[in-house]
Design a protein that fits this description.
about 325 residues; mainly alpha; Rossmann fold; Tyrosyl-Transfer RNA Synthetase
């Protein structure tokens, strides 16, 4: 029997950070051994919020491909491709936009949230409002069985299912209704204690190492109520301890106990974290060195993934045009 299909994507808005890795990419590495995986660089999605700043567009695409490879994705096991290279994504998005009620898009829970969170950007555009429709096209064009998401992204998968149902009702059964593949929520705080985000400039990039990594770790916000080294600490409000819980499980209980007892200071705790992160990230850095030393690898990976994706989506779009009776030729 053929493997079930998994589809997910990453927006190329800069180098991936360890929050991306822990929340999604680490899981992708596991999925590639179990499913027929399609992981795409969502460069059109990046334009929905960053259309005014495309100076680093090409560089960011390369950065994400290198990070995905460095994190452990294997071109022999999965398909890594570029959304904009496959114009059928845009065609299906257009066709879906013809049948998707405006009210569905306006009620998307993340729409108003992002409008408020990104009020410094002019994103009150047709493209931003309609990005769930494009996202649905990205998923359904591969007839994906599963979409790996956290609970906060479930409404997007449900929107895709609704669009699939509406299309199938209007034109006959073409699309399966993809199921969410729930991943455990793993949210890391940024260096300043807020949500880790490139827009806040508070991230640790997967590629960070040496002095860059050390400087970032040593700058992290800790327990604001702790003044002296021997003051009892409160690990539950400390961003540094949040990292220990994910990356230093062997020592986290001892660190928590010592912190509460005032036996370890924040500087020592950060030094310990830096050493652990350097150890955890070492194999990722080694694979990053490999792909950086071979400039052609990025294009080769994308070209290979594009070719595999093209085979699938050409058949899907033939099915779509036939069902809609718009296959002129």
């Amino acid at each position: 029997m053929s493997k079930k299909v998994v589809l997910s994507g990453a927006r190329p808005t800069g180098a991936l950070h360890i929050g991306n890795y822990l929340g999604a990419i680490k899981n992708w590495v596991k999925l590639q051994d179990e499913y027929d995986c399609f992981f795409f660089i969502a460069d059109w999605h990046a334009l929905t919020t960053d259309y005014e700043d495309t100076g680093s567009y090409k560089e960011n695409i390369s950065e994400v491909v290198m990070d995905l490879y460095a994190a452990g994705l294997e071109p022999d096991k999965c398909n890594i491709f570029l959304q904009s290279s496959l114009k059928e994504h845009a065609e299906l998005h257009l066709l879906f936009s013809m049948i998707t009620p405006l009210s569905w898009l306006e009620r998307c829970p993340t729409y108003k949230d992002q409008l408020n969170q990104m009020d410094e950007k002019n994103i009150r555009t047709y493209g931003f409002l309609g990005y769930p429709c494009l996202q649905s096209a990205d998923i359904l064009i591969y007839k994906a069985d599963y979409v790996p998401v956290g609970e906060d992204q479930l409404p997007h998968v449900e929107m895709t299912r609704e669009i699939a149902r509406r299309f199938n009702f209007l034109f006959g059964k073409v699309f399966p209704e993809p199921e969410p593949l729930l991943t455990e929520a793993k949210v890391l705080p940024g260096l300043d204690g807020r949500k880790m985000s490139k827009s806040y400039n508070n991230t640790i990039a997967l590629k960070d190492r040496g002095d860059v990594l050390r400087k970032k770790v040593m700058s992290m916000i800790t327990d604001p109520a702790r003044i002296r080294k021997d003051d009892p600490g409160h690990p539950d409000v400390c961003a540094v301890f949040a990292y220990h819980k994910f990356f230093n499980k062997e020592e986290k209980e001892q660190i928590e106990s010592d912190c509460k007892a005032g036996l370890i200071g924040c500087v020592g705790c950060k030094k310990n974290l830096y050493e652990k992160l350097a150890e955890v990230l070492k194999p990722i850095h080694e694979r990053r060195d490999e792909i950086e030393a071979n400039p052609d690898m990025v294009r080769e990976i994308i070209a290979r993934g594009n070719a595999s994706a093209q085979v699938v989506i050409s058949k899907t779009m033939a099915d779509v045009r036939k069902a809609m009776k718009i296959d002129w030729e």
